[in-house]
Amino acid sequence: MTQDTPLTEQAQTEDEKLLQKACQLDPTLYQSVLTAEQFESLFEFYADVFNALAEDLSLQAVLDKLCLAAEKLLPNAIATIMFLDEHGKLQVKAAPSVPESGIRALNNLEPGPHSGSCGNVIYRQEPVFVENTLKDERWQDIRELAINFDLRACWSMPIQVGDKIIGTFALTSFEQRMPNAFQHKLLEMGAQIVSIAYRRSKLEEDVAFLAYHDPLTGLKNRKQLEKDIEAYIQASNGEPYSLILLGLNRFKAINDTYGHNMGDRVLQAIGQCIERFVNNEFPLYRVGSDEFALIFKRKNCDVPMVEAYVENLARCIRRVIEVDHHHFYLSASFGIACALGKQHFYQLMKEADMAMYAAKANPNKCYAFYDPSMAQKVVDEAELDRDLHRALEERQFVLYYQPLMDATGNKVRSLEALIRWQHPEKGLIPPFKFIPLAEETGMISQITQWVVDQVISDLKNWHRRGLDQFMISINISGQEFNKQQISLLIDKIQQADLAPFFEFELTEGYFMGYEDASIELLEMIRSSGISIAIDDFGTGYSSLSYLKRFPVDKLKVDQSLVRDIVVDENDQAIVEAVVAMSHALKLKVVAEGVETLAHQKLLENKGIDYLQGYLYAKPKPAVLVEKFIRQHV
Fold it and tell me: In the chain, N or C: fewer CB atoms in 10 Å?
């Protein structure tokens, strides 16, 4: 059997071998016990039922056929097949010659020492042959059944799949007797054929299930969503419904940091979380690696109803997910597309997808409804993506540097490297217009490597010219905050022997949910000699409690806390608290967005260590910033 053999074909070949083995007759038995006619009858039985299996009949049809074929070989008797249910009770699966009243009496049979032949098979885990049902104590609890239906003898064989007994195959006679060698072999063959038919049926069910379900979460998959949406479209009666597509934010960081096995378990936990929230009200699907979808359909559905539902679901997802003592703080972005008037699934899915990515790009709202303007944005992004690839190939990027001053505003303490894109047609493009796309497409890693190479070159040039009193900070994206990329950057910097002159700026939100892995990466950075700054502190996740655990050197207070600090007492109190706690932890504090002398004076009085903003200098190319440095050394 080659590796390329389909699973169903491989299983079929194995089943045939098992069946042939079950139906083999010992030649000595044939010569001494079975007549030629009996021997031939058994093989006719085998051939008859095997043909039914080969015809791909349903499990029920195969089992009924087996029972009827067995009854032909045992006059004055009936055949029954029973399977254990999820509660451990026996239920009749096939008994074509048993009246409905008999089936009702047999169903829900609980295995035990006095529960008849079939109940004892399960109880004892072995074949059970009862010659006289009216006297045998093994039929004590169901004696009435034997009397009512004139059952005098019953022989039952376990049906086994692997190491597990799943049911019984029984021949029940209307006369008292024990099975002879021929009848015993008939029971053995029958039970084995039932086992094979059952296994094949389960395999077919599994294959059918996997065709329309996600194997990881057990949820319906994209293929099933397509079928369901097309059915909705065909049966449309004008009642509105929406496709809600949700994508987990920053999920790639979990795979990169903890590995795909942990990522899979987090996905399972998220799937269960969403499933509990939906609570079977709407069909739920997993349609991508970190994307789920549901069809929202309620009577009198309107926009506020959908918004309220999505906001509640978003809150549910934001709750902490715990896997193997690791805590993950996840969020999701939602794209919503109205299905009315849509002609096919792909149109609806495309619109929901565009809306979801619009939501990902909006820091103030976790969801977006599709509108036609998004289509043009997709075209623009496709063009930008193409140009960005060309920019990497043709080295169209340039670095600008913005100084960080001491608290007096007189001396340069360090520089922040800020990338710009010198587009040949559109001119200078700021980072906020292309960095999100670079993160989404994975190009951010190549861009940051270029930044590091350029900073190394500029630092070496400045050192040769006697300017070696400051370090340079570079921004590290959350998409590349993983061991592989960080190790690559550290290697570049250490090979240039410039680690003490580098600082990595990381936004605090990257750490939330990945504390243990983040500490490991931060310690790796620090041990290399590179400093670490937390950027945009105060913009959402801020927690001074985790700072004592994280090996960082500097906090950069976000400009949103600086902008109105002269007149806003709340901003003053927050900055004061940040400075006090940071200094207690031996961290330096930077204030971003300093634009006036009033800002500088107040922040200096609050104990801020460094200041950065347009009051001192806008970002400048390397040639121009050198002049500024020489004037402020």
Answer: N
Question: pTM of the prediction?
Answer: 0.59
Contact 474, 505 (CB under 8 A): yes
Report the distance separating Cα 478 and Cα 474, nearest Å. 13
Q: Which amino acid is at 66?
A: L
Half-sphere exposure of 91 (CA within 13 A, CB side): 6
Q: Which helix (H) or strand (E) holds 602?
A: helix 597-605
- The whole-angstrom distance between residue 575's C-alpha and the CA centroid of its chain comes to 40
State the DSSP code for 111.
P
Residue 17: the pLDDT is: 55
Half-sphere exposure of 387 (CA within 13 A, CB side): 20
Are the CB atoms for 42 and 186 separated by under 8 Å?
yes
- What backbone torsions phi and psi does residue 368 show, to the nearest 5 degrees? -150, 140
**Cβ within 8 Å of residue 596, ≥6 positions away:** 566, 615
Distance CA 22, CA 477 (A): 64
Q: How far apart are CA 171 and CA 113, in angstroms?
A: 19
pLDDT digits (tens, 9 = 90+) for 401-436: 999 999 998 999 999 999 999 999 989 999 988 998
Strands 412-423 vs 471-476: parallel, antiparallel or unpaired = parallel
Which residues, at least 6 apart from 172, have a Cβ–Cβ distance to it below 8 Å? 77, 78, 79, 80, 117, 151, 153, 154, 155
- For residue 168, the one-letter residue type is T
Residue with tokens 């032909």: 72
Which of 430, 429, 447 shows the shortest CA–CA distance to 438? 447
* Calpha distance 43→51 (Å, rounded): 12
Which region among 128-142, 271-285, 327-341 has the lowest average model confidence (pLDDT)? 327-341
Confidence of residue 233 (pLDDT cuts 50, 70, 90): confident
Contact 109, 115 (CB under 8 A): yes
Tell me, what amino acid is at 384?
A: L
Q: Taking a C-beta distance cutoff of 8 angstroms, is the pair 162, 196 a contact? A: no
Q: Name the residue among 595, 530, 538 with its Cα closest to residue 561.
A: 538
SS3 261: helix
pLDDT exceeds 70 at position 366: yes
- Helical axes 59-73 vs 181-212, angle rounded to 10°: 170
Contact of 272 with 378, CB cutoff 8 Å? no
Cα end-to-end distance, the chain, whole Å: 76
Assess whether pLDDT exceeds 60 at residue 159: yes
Distance CA 47, CA 50 (A): 5
DSSP track, 425-463: TTEEE-GGGTHHHHHHHTTHHHHHHHHHHHHHHHHHHHH
CA dist 148 and 289 (Å) reads 59
pLDDT, one tens digit per residue, over 541-591 is 556 566 778 889 999 988 888 989 998 898 899 899 889 988 988 999 999
Question: Over the stretch 35-44, which tens digit does the pLDDT of each residue have?
Answer: 777 777 877 7
CB 43 within 8 A of CB 220: no
- Predicted confidence (pLDDT) at residue 631 exceeds the cutoff of 50: yes
Q: Are 488 and 453 in contact (CB under 8 A)?
A: no
Are the beta carbons of 336 and 352 closer than 8 angstroms? yes
Q: Which phi-psi region, left, alpha or beta, contains residue 324 (left: φ > 0; alpha: ψ -120 to 50)? A: left
CA atoms within 13 A on the CB side of 174: 10
